[in-house]
Amino acid sequence: MIAGSLVLSLHQATEAAVPVAIGVFVDRAVSTGRFEPLLWCVLMMIVLFAVLSNAWKTGARQVVWAIEYETHLLRLEVAQRVLDPRGHRTGLRSGELLSIATSDAEKAALVMRGLSVGAAACTALIVSSVSLLLVDVPLGLGVLIGVPLLMLGIQALSPLLTRRTSSQQEAVAQTTALATDLVSGLRTLRGIGAQHNAAARYRRSSQDTLHATLRAASTNGLQDGVTTALSGLLLAAVAGVAGWFALHGRITIGELITVVGLAQFVAEPVGTLGYASQIIARARASAARLASVLSSSPVMLDGTSTAIDLRQPLLAMEGVSHGTLSSLTLVLQPGESVGVLCYDPRDADALLNVVAGRAPEHTGTVLVGGTALEELDVDVLRRTVLLERHETDLFEGTLRTNLLSETGLERVMTAAGAADLVEELDRPLADRGQALSGGQRQRIGLARALLAEPPLLVLHDPSTAVDAVTEELLAEGLAQERNGRTTLVLTSSPALLGKMDRVVVIADGAVVAEGIHSELAASDAVYQEAVLR
């Protein structure tokens, strides 16, 4: 950006020198009628315009390259923050984050254009002012005083433009987020006949965005109009005074041409400074939104320890309280398969957040392989504990590319109850696997989790979207695919609970029962009602 600004400043300096060169041309060659000065003046103009055109081409290319590169880096920073395994507390929806990573990143990087063209415009004003001072001191002082006053008047509108641009960007982000939500839930909306209500809601949000955009555009237009009007008045004043001086012989005809040319030229850098202030005002609004994401605090703390002892209990919770959990104690021995039945779904969500390390404010002790969870390096924790929720995220491509590994692929597909999909591994997938049924997505997600072979696999309702026959196949496959792995399954499925080494029942945030599924189903009426459907 600095290199581009310097070269663009050279372009503006040479452009400001054009009226000066024409004035010299008139006084030294035209008025004298001599050939030698005429030749030198022509050569001077050729060199001047050669430098002028090449400086613009080189400087503009350099600044555009810098802007595009900076936009790319900003988008990478936002993506890196969003993908951070520690999570983030931005409070923004996916569509809003998408808008920040695209529109706001692009607008924030434009501050480089504002600074570069602003620096070039200042160079042009300095060259013009010095040239006017050399011609006539009062004329030069008039420009030096008039231009700062003009800029102060222009800058008075910048805070208003920043506020309205910020409101516009927020409205755009909210509409983008709403559109993303509606597209992802379109099938559900059609199923319940709510697509007309959704369209009306999007229409209202789009109208709000349009109004915010028009308000920002009106402020932008007002600033353009003020800049043009004041620049024209300044030009008229300088040209009028210079003409008066020429009539009284105070300056030559060539100097008059120089003064009028410079006064006319001055309107361009003054307008450019107004344009630069608009760019910077809009960039500040977007930069503030970027900063809110990049400075957001992580959901979980990142420790430094990498010590995991697979001979110790892979998960040991003692006196843990978080959300609806109250002094919960739960220990998983190596290789053990444990089912957890939560009468209150909020208990399951709270337990999953603790196990995933996304509840730094919890009380009690949580050990993973003998090491306190908050002391573990986040990458080590993710390699040790794999949490597969029942909402499966699939990516555009094929089933094979979503599974990430070829080793033991057919075996784990069968274990996940997805043997019917083995012959469709190269089937193209749309975004989020929308062409698949909920049960197919769920089984593909389970197969992917099994392929990862984590020491501790945590499953949350892995069979909610499959039929009873497939659920039984899935439960049998999980039991056969253990291979010494420790498994924690949060479910109410009798097929899955029946394959567990033991079942833990949680009610009111604490363990209220523990045992084998068949014994609990025979002796506990509440348990029986919860699982035997």
Characteristics of this structure?
ABC transporter transmembrane region fold, 533 residues, 4-stranded antiparallel sheet, Rossmann fold, alpha/beta, 6-stranded mixed sheet, 18 helices
Give a written overview of the molecule:
With 533 residues, the protein is α/β, with parallel strands linked by helices. It has two domains: 2-294, ABC transporter type 1, transmembrane domain (ABC transporter transmembrane region fold), CATH 1.20.1560; 315-531, Rossmann fold, CATH 3.40.50. It contains 18 helices and twelve strands. The protein has a six-stranded mixed beta sheet. Strand 4 and strand 5 form a beta hairpin. Helix 4 (111-135) runs antiparallel to helix 9 and helix 5 (137-155) runs antiparallel to helix 8. The model has no long low-confidence stretch (mean pLDDT 85).
Short summary:
This protein is α/β, with parallel strands linked by helices. The protein contains 18 helices and twelve strands.
CATH C-level of the largest domain: Mainly Alpha
Strand fraction:
5-15%
State the major sheet. Answer: 6 strands, mixed
CATH superfamily of the largest domain: ABC transporter type 1, transmembrane domain
Shape: elongated
Q: If you average the pLDDT, what whole number results?
A: 85
Q: What's the count of strands?
A: 12
CATH architecture of the largest domain: Up-down Bundle
Q: What is the topology, as strand order, of the major beta sheet? A: 6-9-10-3-11-12
Number of domains: 2
Oligomer: single chain
Low-confidence stretches: none
Query: What structural class do helix, strand and pairing data support?
Result: alpha/beta
Helix content: 55-70%
In CATH, the topology of the largest domain is named ABC transporter transmembrane region fold
Distance between the termini: 67 Å
